[in-house]
Amino acid sequence: xxxxxxxxxxxxxxxxxxxxxxxxxxxxxxxxxxxxxxxxxxxxxxxxxxxxxxxxxxxxxxxxxxxxxxxxxxxxxxxxxxxxxxxxxxxxxxxxxxxxxxxxxxxxxxxxxxxxxxxxxxxxxxxxxxxxxxxxxxxxxxxxxxxxxxxxxxxxxxxxxxx
Length: 163
Prior knowledge:
about 160 residues, 2 domains, four-stranded antiparallel β-sheet, 3 helices, 8 strands
């Protein structure tokens, strides 16, 4: 089970999330959105005991005001790729894996997908806070093989929508 919960305290957005390793173990990761935070491993003798332990922790967090994200943004990182090659495709997949790890372990979100065409390639991630995610991603990609992006933008699904 993967569950991400959020709570704003004193204008600071906090996250608390669960990740399963297998049917009897997993871990909880928590902190301030955009930071790696802390991690605790949870183990049990069997699946039902593990699920009960995790559910108890989830209930505690919900009672303290944590909840699923109300709104999320799509952040897109775009690269030039005039002639798509096998190496560029590998780079795109490595970038997707890297970003999924980065936004996952900092409570920001998860990989949404990637694609290429029209001389460009892109990776998109669903994030709980676009500005924090942009700042974290820009700092992380700087001086790496992924640092030569064209743009980082927010997809606005409300464009052209009627009230």
